[in-house]
């Protein structure tokens, strides 16, 4: 605070309490929560704290170049928005505000199949590349329609989420009987596949009942052929955490992998994403790009993930914090803070180009307090 005027947040984390103050408790806990004891939510953050940066000096860093090419498209920054359902829970304009914010940095956005605005409207508002995230619905005809619409609207890739054969045990959602308010809906899906989302039941999450009814848990490697036969877009798998799965995916010719544990919302106890990244990068051996999400809150986190071989990283909850706190401007500020912090970190570690970021930039060190927390109590 200066002279009683609230200061603009200087860090991404400062948006979390601002968002919490704006959102109904059930929505806040839906956004913020993880599965079970939330150990994986905490592990994602802690993993970033175990790496220290080995800065090089006497390097000309008068110009730092952050632009990159991702799945063939130019982006302004190796950073994008992770797929998240129902942005209208955070602000009235929903995904339109998000893609405008991302577009101001030429950053990619992965749009959830559970978006609360139509793909066509989102595409009309976007300036950065859009990718469409899919869940494996029992109703393949619905998937087929969604893919066709996304292609027609100019989406650039499909991202199949492979860590969600069912929803994780999200205690906060269950305790709050989380369900969608009447004015928010999965606007891209027919009513036939949106059952349960608006039904409140104490002690249980509507999303979990929805997933049990509509997500097909039999998804396996052989199903990828069907999806590939439906589209000419690149196919990225989201939710890979092991060398074994990464090697198999690369052998099958997927176009990219997102090292992700769904922000700790699926398997409680799953590996932290930064810890999984090196084995995945090694197993892929350059056959396709590797991306990461989970716990990215600082430019130095982005730097560490890029140094360990990620081509770009994606950010989840902080974008919703920004939207809830200040709509499009809040989301823009969250993303541009990460961008500016990344540029600072590159300059201060003697790396003017993204090509300079490699594992020699990092050393294992003691964990730091700044990386051990996440926001909000698991209860209440
Ligand atoms: C509120 C919320 C909704 C999400 N919805 C989806 C979704 O629809 N599809 C998906 O693949 N992942 C979804 N995720 C997971 C994110 O894509 C991403 O993996 C995760 O949020 C990254 O971690 P972070 O929030 O710590 O940045 C969601 C995450 C949150 C917080
Ligand atoms: C699969 C049914 C609901 C998913 C809701 C969005 C999501 O992935 C999340 O983490 O929340």
Give an account of the 3D structure:
By secondary structure, the chain is of the alpha/beta class. It has one domain: TIM Barrel, CATH 3.20.20.70. It is 37% helix and 12% strand. Strands 4-11-10-9-8-7-6-5 form an eight-stranded parallel beta sheet. Strands 1-12 form a two-stranded antiparallel ribbon. A two-stranded antiparallel ribbon has the order 2-3. β10, α12 and β11 form a beta-alpha-beta unit. The chain starts with 14 loop residues before the first helix and ends in a 16-residue tail after the last strand. The C terminus is likely disordered. It binds flavin mononucleotide and the ligand CCCCCCC(=O)C(=O)O. GO terms for molecular function: FMN binding; oxidoreductase activity. InterPro entries: Aldolase_TIM, Alpha-hydoxy_acid_DH_FMN, FMN-dep_DH, FMN_HAD, FMN_hydac_DH_AS.
Task: Summarize this structure briefly.
With 380 residues, the chain is of the alpha/beta class. It has helices spanning 15-22, 25-32, 39-49, 95-103, 119-125, 140-153, 171-175, 206-214, 224-229, 243-251, 273-284, 299-307, 317-348, and strands spanning 51-53, 68-70, 73-75, 79-81, 109-111, 130-134, 157-161, 235-240, 256-259, 290-293, 312-315, 362-364. The protein has a single domain (15-359), classed as TIM Barrel.
